[in-house]
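Box 3.1 A note on notation
Throughout this textbook, protein chains are presented in two layers. The first layer is the amino acid sequence; the second is a token string describing backbone geometry. Keep the layers aligned when reading.
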Amino acid sequence: MNRAVFLDRDGVINETFVVGGTPVTPKKVEDFRILPGVKDALTALKEGGYYVFVATNQPDIPRGDLTPQELEKMHVVLSDTLPIDKIYVCLHDNEDACDCRKPKPGMLLKAAKEWNLDLTASYMIGDRWKDIEAGARAGCTTILVISPWSAEQPPGRTVRSDYTVENLMEAARIILAKKETQNEDIR
């Protein structure tokens, strides 16, 4: 079975903007900027033998704040710029009760079937509790990238990641170091 790293998109791979204390995702490809160090981190993960997938909720489409065409343009930028194997997108809003919208693990489970993944040997990296919970529900090791909104939790719930990091490169170093330790244990 294969190993993978799943990444949330906004705030982990690309910049988000804070407007009135709320994180806002890019609405136009012109505003879509990949964060520093992301390409190097993903290249290291690929060279380390991991598949790399994006798993992103995009509720701005059903809300009418983002067009499917602009989303596609952004994802072309990702695919053309970064070593990503596939981008999984949930185009639903909270009230749709779909199986793919994080914190549900649907996108990760779909990828596991399509790519023969061992989710217990895989990782989910995100900047919000929904990403971490989706990864945990799928059986992945979870890594939280600190952001101004990463501490937000739903009332009455405490979602904890396995690791907490400042950026994607730090997450990649943890993953690759852990893999090296596991390989040494096998020898």
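The first strand starts at residue 4 and ends at 7. The chain has a mean pLDDT of 93.
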